[in-house]
Amino acid sequence: MPLLKYLLIIFLSVFVISCGSNITEKKKDFKIKTNTKKGNISNTEVLNLSLLNKKNHKTDSVVYTLDAKKIGESTKLSDFKLGKQTVEASIYIEGESLSVTTPITILNNTPPKLYHYKILNEYPHDITSYTQGLEFHNGFLYESTGQYKESKLRKVDYKTGEVLINVDLGENYFGEGLTILNDKVFQLTWRENQGFVYDVNTLEKLSSFRYGNSKEGWGLCNYNGKIYKSDGTEKVWILNPETLVEEDYIQVCTNKGMITQINEMELIDGKIYANRYQKNGVAIINPENGAVLGVVDFTPLKALVTQHPTLDVLNGIAYNPETKTIFVTGKRWDKLFEIEITE
After folding, report:
1. pTM
2. Which residue from 152, 320, 173, 179 is spatially nearest to 241, judged by alpha carbons?
3. 113-342, what's its fold?
4. Is the per-residue pLDDT at 2 higher than 70?
5. Is 303 exposed, middle or buried, given 0-12, 13-18 or 19+ CB atoms closer than 10 A?
6. Which of 46, 128, 169, 297 could join 151 via S-S bond, C-beta 3.0 to 4.6 A?
7. Is 244 helix (H, G, I), strand (E, B) or coil?
């Protein structure tokens, strides 16, 4: 290699490395300052941003984004989803660019309302069923159950408890939540990273699908033609009903913080009613932004079912559009309760 060419390559390499190093060093001198309290801010507040520039570098411009949307130094948060978000400042300086970020958590502005319930009717329920999902369709109750070697999908006459169609999942699957959309039943498994699709009338298996960023399957419901999927975290994923790809998510939040262990879900009057794992209660969630609007404590119901060694928590909530009432049960409960919820 000619000496001149060799020296040119060395020079350019050193120049690129020094430029990169220079940007890295400058990046340490910038920090985003917010008006959040320990990183938290209400969705009715205005987010105020400023840029700390420790060494007073001359900047050409600064562009802020929140949840990948361009924002100004003062931004109303009412149109943003709740939960953990990232504020990014893209800084242009002397023909170069760098970015710094800071996390914030957007919380709901009001505490959840407390709702009460009244029992309207009681119906028989299979005491051996480890209930994971419930949903009504054309007057019949569809139920998904869990536990390895026990998991199944059923079509049931809810008034008598008679099982009309039963599908066993197989020993290696732990069944989870279900939902019904476009004459198809969608059913999750827990840690097998796989869901199943069935014909709603025959429960013939049509296909299967894999999960995306969510690592587990917990609960399912559908809203406005989209499928909502919980995975045990604060996130509820929004799936394309045709491809079943996770396209987006909401994060479940109160005015105090984020709520995890969202389990079986049901869409009722435009709101998600969600069981929380190991809790005998239901959270009422805004499907648009993740805000917890209300809570219902069903703890007393557990004392009304047959007590036995494997009796477990409340899980399973379904809305019957024919009766316009809500039905709840639990894991290995021998009763299905028809209820009315009031504020």
Report:
1. 0.88
2. 179
3. Methylamine Dehydrogenase; Chain H (2.130.10)
4. no
5. exposed
6. 169
7. coil
Residues of the chain with CATH 2.130.10.10: 113-342
Beta carbons of 276 and 259 less than 8 angstroms apart: yes
Phi, psi for 326 (deg, rounded to 5): -105, 145
Q: How many residues does the chain have?
A: 343
Beta strands 292-297 and 113-124: pairing type? parallel
Q: Of 115, 103, 105, 92, whose CA–CA distance to 253 is shortest?
A: 105
pLDDT exceeds cutoff 90 at 249: yes
Tell me the C-alpha distance between 236 and 263, whole Å: 10
What mean pLDDT do residues 140-158 have?
97
Closest CA to 329 of 192, 154, 204, 173: 154
Dihedral-angle region of residue 68 (phi above 0 means left; psi in -120 to 50 means alpha; beta otherwise)? left
Which among 70, 75, 103 is positioned nearest to 61, based on CA atoms?
A: 70
Q: Looking at the domain covering 27-107, what would its CATH class be?
A: mainly beta
Supply 95's token pair.
């023909």
> Which tokens is 35 given?
């008006």
Which 8-state DSSP code applies to residue 9? H
**Dihedral, 125, 129, 134, 135 alpha carbons, nearest 10:** -60
Q: What letter represents residue 103's amino acid?
A: P
Contact 34, 87 (CB under 8 A): yes
Question: Are residues 186 and 227 in contact, defined by beta-carbon separation less than 8 angstroms?
Answer: yes
* Separation CA 155–CA 172 (nearest Å): 22
**pLDDT per position as a tens digit, 11-57:** 544 444 444 457 677 788 889 999 999 999 999 999 999 999 888 88
CATH 2.60.40.10 boundaries in the chain = 27-107
* Phi, psi torsion values for 225, nearest 5 degrees: 80, 5
